[in-house]
From TrEMBL:
Ranges where the Thioesterase domain occurs: 79-156
CDD domains (UniProt xref): PaaI_thioesterase
Coiled coil: none
GO molecular function: fatty acyl-CoA hydrolase activity
Organism from which the protein derives: Ectobacillus ponti
Record bears the keyword Hydrolase: yes
Presence of keyword Hydrolase: yes
Pfam family, one: 4HBT
Transmembrane parts of this sequence: none
Family: Belongs to the thioesterase PaaI family.
PANTHER family reported for this sequence: ACYL-COENZYME A THIOESTERASE 13, THIOESTERASE SUPERFAMILY MEMBER-RELATED
Entry keyword set: Hydrolase
Full protein name: PaaI family thioesterase
């Protein structure tokens, strides 16, 4: 289905005329994601998910990897806490990034083969911060641990994941 620009423009104008505060917030998040997608700031390939969730990523001095995301209406469930699927996604992404940071320049990457998440507290606050560290790195399989904190530095979830190393074609 080819999306016509004029049709999209009409839909946007209609939405803006009828939008409430929540609609405007969502539209701002989505437009920001599109803008970030056009100007990738990471050593990794562009990611729509990273742009939508507004990751801020950083390699730490000890070799761990950190991703911070703001808590927004996109990430929240119907009760106002961060959705468990978003929590799992941030843990999985951060754990993968700690490995991919080293492997992508070598023409390799990783995919998740297994992950276990323990949810300890509801995800609330202004932002969430996830830190992941490699526990074991083999030739083909790696094990990584990720910890997710709220903006009060309370541990809200912990995960372990296994990752398969592949060579990009």
């Amino acid at each position: 289905m080819k999306l016509e620009r004029n049709t999209l423009k009409q839909r946007m104008e209609q939405l803006l005329q009828e939008a409430d505060e929540h609609d405007i917030e969502l539209l701002d998040i989505f437009l920001g994601a599109l803008e970030r997608k056009r100007q990738p700031a990471s050593h990794l390939p562009p990611s729509c998910l990273r742009d939508l969730l507004q990751y801020e990523e950083k390699l730490l001095d000890d070799g761990a990897y950190q991703i911070t995301i703001p808590v927004t209406s996109v990430t929240q469930n119907i009760f106002g806490a961060v959705h468990g699927g978003i929590i799992a996604t941030i843990l999985d992404t951060t754990m993968g990034y700690v490995l991919n940071h080293e492997l992508v320049p070598k023409g390799q990457g990783v995919v998740t083969t297994e992950m276990k998440v323990n949810y300890l507290l509801p995800g609330d606050g202004k932002h969430l911060r996830c830190v992941a560290q490699t526990v074991h790195r083999g030739r083909k399989l790696c094990v990584v641990e990720g910890k997710l904190y709220n903006d009060r530095d309370e541990l809200i979830a912990i995960a372990t994941g296994s990752f398969y190393i592949f060579t990009k074609r």
